[in-house]
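Form 7-S
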Amino acid sequence: MLLIPEHHKNKYGIKLLGAVQISGESFFVYKNKDGEISLRTGQEEKIQKNILKNMIKLNPRILRLLSKYRIKPNINTRTLKELTGGHMNDTCKIAMGIYSLLASNLKSGIDEKSIKEASMLHDLGKVLIPSKVLNKPAKLSVKERKIMNIHSTISYELLKTQDINTDTLDLVKYHHQNLKHSGYPKLRSAEHISDIGVQIISTADKYSALREARVYRRKLSRIESLLILYKEVLEGKIHKDVYRALFDYVQKYDKAA
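Output:
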């Protein structure tokens, strides 16, 4: 992918095409109204804020969703920087590791490109979750948990305004679902998702989160994180083969304590 400088005058004509990872760093892939392709990171706050504002304008459902929970549409660019520089980048590495170690029959019908993009874009909606909820150093209240849980739907609604494929959008929206379909957002009867695809993103996301220090807890070790996820295998929430692929990935590549 060629990195082409993009003119600021085109910032409102920019469309997000997806995301790529180059030398371990994540980039958003954009196309401007002149058809030029460029790569940008979450560190370019002013440009990213304008792009996100435009996404909100393009989809009235986003403001209605925020209004339902009395959330002001304030874009937290600091959250975007932290996510792109850490969690979303890490989730992508783990998700692609899991994918590469799965048996061929389990990977059939799963689009590798969609796994890569969804793992890098899955938490984009957190830029609209209030910091006092996102970074609360204590257990969330019932109301706060409901607010936190809409981040995956917000991610979906933001990305729906862009040139993102349907498989990627579905993986983003349902990355907090599980094999028992007891996660969120709730699946409607007419909806179908790729259970293994969602499992790859979900399991990678959980492992990455457990391995990070959060304001409300310390960073967990490899063993602690794997044990927590193994409990979900026993509960029927995580596919045993996806867990096995994660375990193999951790043994090979996660060398930190």
